[in-house]
Specification:
266 residues; alpha/beta; Purple Acid Phosphatase, chain A, domain 2; six-stranded mixed sheet; 6 helices; globular; binds fe (ii) ion; metal ion binding; hydrolase; iron; Calcineurin-like_PHP; GpdQ/CpdA-like
Length: 266
């Protein structure tokens, strides 16, 4: 059995700056402390993009400082708030494709984690996501060579329409192409994403797809055409993905709630 911890949409800012009154760096420290204490047996922590708020080297350096010394290996992905050049300046060891996309596989025995790069730095709307032909071809090859392995896909932008229409408008523009590709493979068991800052369950081609909250600020439950910048200080959270012989199970943990004693009922 493998346990994967997922933190998404960290939105790190320089020291001393806040978002809706919250310090994203302090929230991440608190979340990582909680997760590594509660789940020291986790095989990996995956950060599914929007690592920083402004994509500056200063913000990536703060992230590097916070992650230094983590007792669990960490894999990093990019989101719409990130920028490849300053990211790779601070994290040069991160695997990239020949075309420079920040994509990699992490093999854990018979499991394969596939971390995709949906960032489109040229997006007219500045925030929507893309899987261009190069990235799709790379994914196709990684799935083909993993025949017989169970694969979990990680994307920043969700792979289904969430009903938050303002966020869907700046969502992944390549869902039809991804769906066609997944039709040619039978080894993807689960997709994990972020971007929305809410806990959501959906699917693509019948494959379960989960979206997690941020460790910092959340999207209020305001479905329909709402401004995607709307934020609310609901509890910070991270995801827990269990990969076992029985299947894939997805949990979320709100780590900023006060400690409450558990009580047996009669
Ligand atoms: Fe975000």
């Amino acid at each position: 059995m493998h346990k994967i911890l997922v933190f998404t949409d960290l939105h790190l800012l320089p020291e001393g700056e806040t978002l809706i009154g919250l310090d994203p760096g302090e929230r991440l420290r608190q979340g990582l402390d909680h997760a590594t204490t509660q789940h020291p047996n986790a095989a990996r922590i995956v950060l599914t993009g929007d690592l920083t708020h402004n994509g500056t080297a200063q913000e990536y350096t703060r992230l590097r400082d916070i992650l230094d010394g983590s007792s669990i290996p960490v894999s990093l992905m990019l989101g719409n708030h990130d920028r490849r050049a300053p990211f790779l300046q601070v994290f040069p060891e991160t695997p990239t494709t020949a075309q420079g996309h920040v994509q990699q596989v992490v093999d854990l025995g018979d499991e394969r984690l596939i971390l995709l790069d949906t960032l489109n730095e040229e997006a007219v709307d500045t925030h929507s996501g893309l899987l261009c032909p190069d990235r799709l071809a790379w994914l196709d090859a990684r799935l083909s060579e993993a025949a017989g392995k169970r694969c979990i896909l990680f994307t920043h932008h969700p792979v289904f329409a969430t009903g938050f229409k303002g966020m869907d408008w700046i969502g992944l523009k390549s869902i039809p192409e991804l769906s066609l590709l997944l039709n040619r493979h039978d080894n993807v068991a689960q997709v994990i994403s972020g971007h929305i800052h809410r806990t959501i369950q959906g699917a693509i081609n019948g494959i379960p797809a989960a979206v997690f909250k941020s460790p910092c600020h959340q999207m209020p439950m305001a479905l329909g055409y709402q401004d995607p910048r709307l934020s609310v200080a609901e509890p910070g959270a991270y995801g827990i993905v269990l990969l076992s012989n029985e299947g894939v199970v997805v949990h979320t943990e709100d780590f900023t709630l006060p400690d409450l004693d558990s009580t047996l009922y009669d």
